[in-house]
Amino acid sequence: MEQPIAPLAQLTEQFGKLPGIGRKSAQRLAYYTLNMPAEDAKAFADSIICARQTVRRCEICCDLTDQALCAVCRGASRDSSLICVVEDPRDVMAIERTHEYRGLYHVLHGVISPLNGVGPEALCVKELLRRFEDGLVQEVIMATNPTVEGEATAMSLSRLLKPLGVAVTRLAYGVPVGADLEYADEVTLARALEGRRAI
Fold first, then answer.
1. Beta carbons of 142 and 100 less than 8 angstroms apart
2. Which residue among 33, 130, 133, 184 is the one 20 to 30 A from 122 at the CA level?
3. Is 25 inside any structural domain?
């Protein structure tokens, strides 16, 4: 049996650590990288190093940024009385793509998960509570994912926030556009019924 080439095996192993990348995909990416022109491979490696060195958390909302404050927190036209709490920076991008939301965000960087040893202290909860000191925030939208952990996180945070005198709301979840009701599970249908609105 042919011995693996150590640098290629190491590159494959590193690609395999990425989420959603299996052994074959990692190997394909490693071979692709080897075939890149030298300047493209260097630019690829430099962009990883640059991102790791310059991207950090916003001092207010904990979203990712390359400055002290993210673009949303710097934006003068945003509604500072409204905060949307999300699990992950990718959730901010998803909501921003709708062009419907004009408030601010707060990124938790995870969810409460006792089975995985993740409690509120591991999330950006202290930073969230600090945002209520000036009394400007009137509503907090819990936009955590509709999973057991996401629900537990939303409930835990709402218990912390309600004594502060702010309205705490939850995103409505239900049947996606274009889906057939017969294929929806019971939880999704129950959420759709609960979140119904007048037309």
1. no
2. 133
3. yes
